[in-house]
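Subject: Predicted fold for thioredoxin-dependent peroxiredoxin, 150 residues

User T.R. writes:
Posting the sequence so we have a shared reference for the thread.
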Amino acid sequence: MNVGDKAPEVLGTDQDGKEIKLSDYKGKKIALYFYPKDLTSGCTAQACNLRDNYTELKKKGYVIIGVSIQDEKSHKKFIEKNELPFPLIADTDLKLVKTFGVYGEKKMYGRTYMGTFRTTFIINEDGIIERIIGPKQIKTKDHAAQILAE
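User M.O. replies:
I've generated the structure tokens; pasting them so everyone works from the same file.
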């Protein structure tokens, strides 16, 4: 997915098994953020930064939706532990990460594995991708400010 593309109508199901659709958020901007894994230090820092700035993001018309490939149970634990006020999509079939092109080969500590690239897509009120904050740009501890800096 690139800037100017229309985001898919069905995004997936959240931690409660509820289907999340683009049309549910008509008239709002969506910050759809993909992250590698629940309960890891970087992902927790990013989620907590979004949580701490959630009121400000909402005031500016943003809806926050997180996506990772862990299951609903893992997402529930992550939400409860960190008191996250936004839904997390359980993309266990890798459909969304592949559609958005944020899943692929990663390297860490000399090991190669498949995983999610930390990426945020800003989707406008009409469902069009307006901006992409890529893996090299994201500051996990200051991500809300990056979303708000239009």
